[in-house]
Amino acid sequence: MLSDAEKAAVQSLWSKASGNVNAIGAEALERLFESFPQTKTYFSHFDLSHGSHDLQVHGGKVLGAIGEATKHLDNLESALSKLSDLHAYNLRVDPGNFNLLSHAIQVTFASHFCTEFDATAQAAWDKFLSYISAVLTSKYR
Ligand code: HEM
After folding, report:
1. Which is the closest atom of ligand 1 to the Cα of 66?
2. CA distances in angstroms from 108 to 12, 137, 138, listed in the order given
3. In the chain, is it the N or the C terminus that has fewer CB atoms within a 10 Å radius of its CB?
4. Three-state SS sequence of the chain
5. Which ligand 1 atom is nearest residue 80's CA?
6. Cβ pair 136, 87 in contact under 8 A
7. Contact yes or no for 54/16 (Cβ under 8 A)
């Protein structure tokens, strides 16, 4: 689990990002799809062009779920239970893709919050996103 200092670092950066979830989420998805084009296969029904409405809306949902998780840092499993079912049973997203999205989110944070997203904040977010990914992939077997 996250230490108190890591929790504080996660929540502090989130307070900067939370007002802009659609744009930040869309950029993270764009970075994901540009760097790892195989991830686009799950989104063949989306308009993936730069800044599209689909990217904004879905980016907002993904970041919104992460924001919600920042309020349940001691209880991620139950907080993310429904999303875990969705990704494992309905969407069947290959677990390897979660690391790729976590990476894209961190790069997006670094480009928007260069001062706040220092090495300590990044390490805390990396751990937090790993926990989220572990929960979202926990029901595969
Ligand atoms: C849907 C969050 C990782 C593919 C969703 C939704 C959320 C979400 C909130 C919408 C659920 C709803 O409408 O009820 C997350 C989070 C992730 C993550 C927090 C990890 C941090 C991934 C990855 C992929 C993926 C790695 C594939 C590369 C999808 C797809 C949908 C979806 C295909 C359905 C889109 C649609 O048709 O509307 N995700 N997701 N997700 N996610 Fe994820």
Report:
1. 19
2. 16, 23, 26
3. C
4. CCCHHHHHHHHHHHHHHHHHHHHHHHHHHHHHHHHCHHHHHHHCCCCCCCCCHHHHHHHHHHHHHHHHHCCCCCCHHHHCHHHHHHHHHHHCCCCHHHHHHHHHHHHHHHHHCCCCCCHHHHHHHHHHHHHHHHHHCCCCC
5. 19
6. yes
7. no
pLDDT digit string, tens, across residues 35-88: 999 999 999 999 999 999 999 999 999 999 999 999 999 999 999 999 999 999
Query: 58 C-alpha vs ligand 1 centroid, how far in Å?
Result: 8
- In the numeric block, which tokens belong to residue 26? 């869309």
Closest CA to 8 of 89, 92, 82, 70: 70
Which tokens in the block code for residue 40? 């686009």
CA distance readout (Å), 120 to 103, 123, 127: 16, 5, 11
